User: Fold these one by one.
Assistant:
Number 1:
Amino acid sequence: MSLFFFFIHHLGHFLPRPVAEFITRRIADICYFTLYREGRNNYLKNIEPAIGGFSSKREMLEMGLKGVRDFAVFVYEFLLVPRLKKWNYKRFMIPVNFERAAEAFKKGKGVIILTAHLGNYEWGAVLLRLLGYPLSVITIKSDNQYITEFYEHKRRSQEIEVIYTGKASIGAIKSLKRGKMVAIVGDRVFTEDGIEVEIFGKKTLLPKGPFYLALLTGSPIIPAFSVKERDGKYHVYFEPEIKIEQYGDTELTIEKNIDKWAKILEKYIKRYPEQWHRFDRVWIE
């Protein structure tokens, strides 16, 4: 994987974007049929409920290739993070209903931006910085130190604070109390115990961390997704605030409210299945 990152990284420096993206997709094709079989099979099982099943092997092949190609382009686009500026971002991204996040920010308690491994969530984070908002992102450290440093360097180029899981709760609370936005990917459990929910009628686990933070800090939760539309641009959609309803017991409160997030997540995955970058197993068999 580190060789893949290294190769794509250099494509971004020496080739025009259309050429680099073309080569990136061809690399993805090779990986699809050779090195990435397990991830490919997991991906197909993950999106199958979202599209109502595959009608043929041909459709399965086409959807699988779309997913792996889209992820490869996402990796390439991450290299371009330092090149995104206030004067050029509108060529690549369009914020939709951003006033929802802006109004939440005015409350002075920070904002939890809840997103998913969907589309280009990294560019979505950059958009918040380019719009002038202080931002921290919670992420995991890769087993490969090169990849960890690679990602951190790109994020810090946009003055995005990086908080690693393990110390995430403390770091996130500090950021929220300072009035910052904190972006969290909320469709995968990394460290803490997850809560079982149903999406597309299938059981999976979602992290309770974002909702626990909201209860501790009083920070509003705004779901947001950066997905590529037919115009070739990323439309960054900001959903209405998830209002936290209290049920007395903390665990019960989180369990009841996380279902709201599951429904929003389901809506976006169904709409953009080929942009859902989950290559691990999602569903509980």
Number 2:
Amino acid sequence: GHNGNLLNADVLRDDLEDSGTDFETSTDTEIAARLLASAPGSSWLERAASTMKVLSGAYCFVAVTPDSLIAMRDPYGVRPLSIGRLNGKGWVIASETCALDHLGAKFVREVEPGEAVVIDSEGFHAEQALEKRRDALCVFEYIYFARPDSVIRGKLLQPTRANMGRELAREAPVDADIVIGVPDSATAAAIGYANESGIPYTEGLVKNRYVGRTFIKPDQRLREQGVRLKFNPLRQVIEGKRLIVVDDCIVRGTTTPKVVEMLRNAGAASIHMRVCAPPIVHPCHFGIDMATQWELIAAHQEIEDIRQHIGADSLAYLSLDGLMRAVEQPEDSFCTACFTGEYPMPVQLQMDKLVFERPGRGKARKVPVTAAVPASEPDSG
């Protein structure tokens, strides 16, 4: 299993193919698995450490062999990875602590950035395979990606998201009758906004829980269809009301208009959109489907233009400073590249996430890279 994105996957795959490896999928997960299987070392811990030395990017890998459980986390710690103990005997490794709760496992600690972990019949083994770089946990885990019942860096996400709503209410107040959230990821923030503003919170959209995330659908037609299937407005709650609608983010600006239209059709008197994230103006290269920059609406439109596009009566985003106050941690301990363009490690200016799925894929091309790394920090080599 893999959470993240390998930046040098194309080069690694070409090298493996040159050495006679036949691939069965187009994923970078298989690349890491093939490297691990063929890595030098007399133990799985040594092989994992060797594998990590050739990987570039954001990754949390877990692998299972007949006798071992293996975990690897990149030296920036972009994605979370947790270790749990089951009944004092077994071990669990999961990307979120809520998975440990469901299994009845007790949280032990996080896999450290740059750490390799192996669990086998002889017990628990860990090695700092790579020197830890600057902390660069993806702040989007707090905004949207992780579940609200998960704990990251010792903080439960639900109250952190409520903090985002409170900050939004302070930064962007507006007169309205009710506050609603776009479920489920914005529910806690909507409650926080309501508590801070004194405007009552209520449920205005019912979520169909059998429909997955819409912003990661592969094309726009599926994203729009997903919105229609995903939400149903409560007309008797909404009709004639001035709404504050809290959402976690606006990525492409293609699904939010459908939500606004849905609420208008249900009789909303006015709709004021409040967004828990700053404008997303740069693509994510580290495992979240944040499109290319030209697809990101905030990268080429002003807030007023976006407001008109989505059809809301007003629109406001949480500032980056407000977001940092909400998470109660310093900005330099996160990756905030989708907001600032300052990536914690060198990335290609234009990465093709479907590079392995193109017909006739040739050898990896040498392309310019941009390294938005502070001068005081070591580069990724």
Number 3:
Amino acid sequence: MSRKKHYHSISDIVAAVYCEQKLIFDRDLGDALPLPIRKKAAEGTLEHQRFAMESQRAAIDKRCFIASSIYGIDSIEVVTLRKWRDDVLLQSKMGCLFVYGYYRLSPCMVSVMAHQTWLVSLARAGLDWWLAVLDKKVNK
């Protein structure tokens, strides 16, 4: 049976430590905060959860087959390409489709590239060009 994780905001933790009476009051009578404050608290909690999910995904999903085979698994180039994948490609349906296709084809492409050094040179040139494009966009 799977249990849904419940995250406590730092505000909840501090309030519990700082004022035991408030904790008891909230438990017995419900949250008596004004709506704008509750809205901000909910936004903060959602942002913490989004950050936690992003960091888990980044820790798990380190696939970048072609770039990893050319530059090394944790090189700055590969990290840059992963960030572009997460921040740009995975934010649209077409980008997700591209990433899906890439993950399906790239392991085979890396195997072929292992025997064809000219393909490695071609892929490196293409990736270097794309990294330069991304660098110009970031440093505008």
